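Q: I have 807 residues here and want to know how they pack in 3D. Can you give me a structure?
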Amino acid sequence: MTSDVYVASGDNQGDSNLNIRTTTLEGSGIWFKVKKGLRGLWGTRQTEDTQTDRELYIRTTIRELVIYVFFIATLCILTFGMTSSTHYYYTKVMQELFVDAQFPDTKNTFKGMTTMQDFWRFSEGPLMDGLYWETWYNQKNVSEEDLGYIYYENKLLGVPRIRQLKVRNGSCEVHPDFQEEITACYDSYAKAKEDTSPFGSENGTAWVYHTEDELDGSSHWGLLDYTYSGGGYYQDLLDTKTKSLAIIKNLKENLWLDRGTRVVLVDFTVYNANINLFCVVRLVVEFPATGGAVPSYQFRTVKLLRYVTTYDYFLMGCEVLYMLFILYYIVEEVLEIRKNKCSYFKSVWNCLDVLVILLSIVAFSFNIYRTITVDSLLGKLLDQPLTYPDFEFLGFWQMQYNNMVAIVVFFAWIKIFKYISFNRTMTQLQSTLSRCSKDIAGFAVMFFIIFLAYAQLGYLVFGTQVKDFSTFQESIFTQFRIILGDFDFHALEAANRVLGPIFFLTYVFFVFFVLLNMFLAIINDTYSEVKAEISMQKSEFEISDYIKRGYNKVLEKLSLKKDRIRDIQDAIQTADLNQDRHLDWEEWRLDLKMRGIPDAEIEAVFAKYDQDGDMILNENEQKKLKADLERQKVIFNYLFIQHCSKPRSKGAVSHVSCNDSANESDDDDEDRPISSKNFVSRDDFQILARRVDRMEHSIGSIVSKIDAVIVKLEAMERAKLKRRETMGKLLDNITEDERNGRSDDELRREQMERLVREELERWDSDASIASTGRRGNRPQSGRSTASSSASSNRVRVPGSHGNTSSA
C-alpha cells in the first residue's frame, strides 16, 4: 500500500549544531551547490577518488556509460540519416549509363578504352546520348520544360565541361643515338612540364591555357599516381545535343588531342529532386607516355541540401544535440587534463577521446561551410544557367566529411571498451593484447624483414608482366592476399616458369605456415596465462553485483508493500470488534498497531479514505479501500510473476521469494514444497535455520555474561567509594582527637584494629554483592546489598562524645 505520507522522526537534539552548520554554509551555499552539481555532472573515474572505493568506481562507471550510450545513439542516428541504399542505386544507374554503355560502331565501353579514337567514339556516342534526353521512347520530342533531364528525372545542372592537360615538346631528352630519327619527346605528366602555350586556332577556351585560379578548379589524383592540376584547356558544352555534338566534332577535326595530351576530364553534375541527391560525375582518361589510354571514373552521390523534409529537421535537432555532447566532453577532458596534467595523455583511451572531439569539431565546421557554399553556388547557377557549376570541390569534401564521420563512429564504438573493460570477462582481451605487445613487436620485426624481402623480390621478378606486382605497393598487398588464400598462381608461372613456383612455395611455407602460426601461438599462450590468472583472482564488487543489489532492493520493497496490503486487508476483517460494519479509528489503529505498522502510515491511510471526517470508515469507504488494495495487490502479483519467470544464471541470488502467493497464508507457505530450482532445498534450509538458532543462543549467553561482569564492576566501584568515604571520616576523627589533646597510644591502636577489621568485613560484603549480582542480574540488588552492609557496620570512636560514625 503506497501513501504520500512522510514522517519526520527523531528529536531536537543537536539543533544548535545544525543551526551553526547551516549558518556557516549560507555564505557559500550557492557556490557549494554549483561545485557539487558540476562535480556530479562531470565526475569521472579520473577525477573522483575511485581507487579505494570500489562501489564509487562502479557507480561512476555506470553513470559515464549511460551518458555515453545516449551520445553514441545520437551519433548513429546522424550517420544512418546521412546515407541509405538510395545512394547506391543512384550511383549504379549513372555508372551503367555512362561507363557500361557500348560505342555505336563497336562493342567497346568506356572501361575498355585504349586509344584516343576510343575517346572520340565515347564522346560522340554514350556521352551525348547520356547527357541529352530529347525524345521519348516513342521517338516523340520532350517538351521544353522537360529538356535537360537525364532519365527524365535527373536535372543536368548547368552544362558539362571537358578539360585537358598537356606536356610540352622537349620535356624529356632523347638518347643521342636516336636524336636524328626522333625529334619530339613528350615526358610523363608533371606540373613543371605542363604546356601552357596556345595552339590550334587560338581563339577559344579550348585552345588557350587557363590556370587553376582562373578556373577555380581543384587537382585530381589519377589512376597512374599522377596529381593533375586544376588548370588546362577546357571546353564547355551547350544545353542541346545538336550544339554539343557540333563542338565535339570541331575539337576532333582540329586535333584537340595530340601527343602532348596526358589527361582528359569530363565533369558535370546532376540533381534528383525526388530523392534530394546530387551526383557529381567525373570521367577521366589518362594518356601515359607509353601510349594508349587508361580510363577511370568517379561518381560522388552526396546530399548537399540537408534540411528539406521533416526528417531532415529531426536530424538537425540531433546535430545540435550531438554538439552539446561534444561541448560536455570538452569540459570533461579539460577537467581531467587539469587534474592529471601530462599523465593524462599516457592513456590510449584519453587520446582516443581527444581524437573523437577534434574530428567532430572539424566535421561540424565543414557542415556549416557546406551549407553556405551550396546556397551560393545554386544562386549563381540560377542566374547563369548556361555556365559550368563546379560541384567537384564540394563533392570531394562531402565524401571526406562522410569518411570522417565514419571514422568517428568507428572510434566511438571502440571506446565502449573503456567503460566495460573493468569486468573480469571484458578484461581478458585488453590484458592479453597489452601483455603480449612486446612479444608481438619483437616478432613483427622478424616478420616484416622476411615479408618485405619477398615483396621486393616479387616486384623485381614479376613487376613487368603481372599486374599484381606492377608496383611495390601492389606487391605488398598481393602478398597479404596470398596469406588469405586469394592468389593467381598461373600468372606467376606464366611470368617465370622457374622462379614463379619457387617464389610461391617458399613464401607460403615460411610466411604462412611458420611466421603466421608463431604469431597465433604468441597470442594463444598469453591468453591462456591471462585466463588462468583471472580465474584465480579474488572476486571483486562488479557491475553485475551492483545491478543485482539494486534489483533485489526494489523487489524487497515490493515484497514489503505486498505484505502491508495483506495486513490492511486482514485488519478490515478483524478490527470491527463490535460487528457493526463500521470501522472506527480506535479499532483501526489498535489492530494495525499490533501488526507493526507505524502510526503515521495508519493515520495517513485512514484519513485518505475517511472522506466525511467522522473518524469512522463506513461500508462505502471500506469498499473503496478494499478495491484499491485489490488493484495494487494484482499489480504487485504481476510484478512478482514477471520476476520469477525471468531465467537466472546458476548461482544467482535473490532476496525475494518467488513462492509467495497473495492467495495463500503463511501456514500454507510452510507446507508448500519449493518448486523453483533457484532456491535451496527444505533440508538445507532447516540445517541453516538450526545453525542460526544455535548462533543466536550463543550470542545471548555471551551478552548475559557481559552484563554480569558490568554489574559486578559497578558494585565494586560503589563499594570502593563507600570505603574511601568511611576511611576519610575515621582519619578526620583521629586528627581531631590529636588536635584536642586526647591522643593515647592504646586508643590509637584500638582504632587501627577496628579499621582493619572493618576493611575485612568490606571484602566479605563485596563477595556477597557479586554473588547477588550474578543470581539476580540486576544492578538494584547490588546497590541494596552494598547499602545494607554499609548501614550495618558502624564504628564508635572513643572520645567523640557519644557520636557514631557510619561506615
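Q: Anything worth noting?
A: The first helix runs from residue 15 to 26. The longest strand covers residues 154-166.
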